[in-house]
Amino acid sequence: MRRFTTVLTVLLGLFPVSFGLQYVLDGPGAAAGFGIDPWPTGVAAGYFAVKGIRDMVLGLNFLVLLALGQRRAAGILMAVAVPIAFTDAIVVLTHGGSLATALGIHVLTGLIVLADAWLLLRERPAAETSHPTPVPAHS
Fold this sequence. Notes:
Order of helices and strands: HHHHHH
Shape: elongated
Number of strands: 0
Largest sheet: none
Structural class: mainly alpha
Distance between the termini: 41 Å
Radius of gyration: 19 Å
Mean pLDDT: 89
Number of domains: 1
Helix content: over 70%
């Protein structure tokens, strides 16, 4: 289960990094899949960079904590980040987006992040799960 949780956490870190890069490099193209149409143009299109950087930093935080072996901290950060996905769903629904996009992309993402947070937070520290090596008796 630990390996599954690690892979899921890595993926949940890489996805926002990739989405963020898309928003920074091609905001209008990336925005098409978010669920709101039309997106801002002109000066207001600067929000693409804001969203992109937010997503990249969030994903990098997950990855850095995991790389440093801070699985519990990664789980806490994931649990704290869940409202982002649910808020994105609400924004889609209140700005003319479809229910399918709100549920199928944003709510589903929130539920997966919540599940991964739960998996990370229920893990026992490695010291508790490892079996001590018996020390040979001295003669």
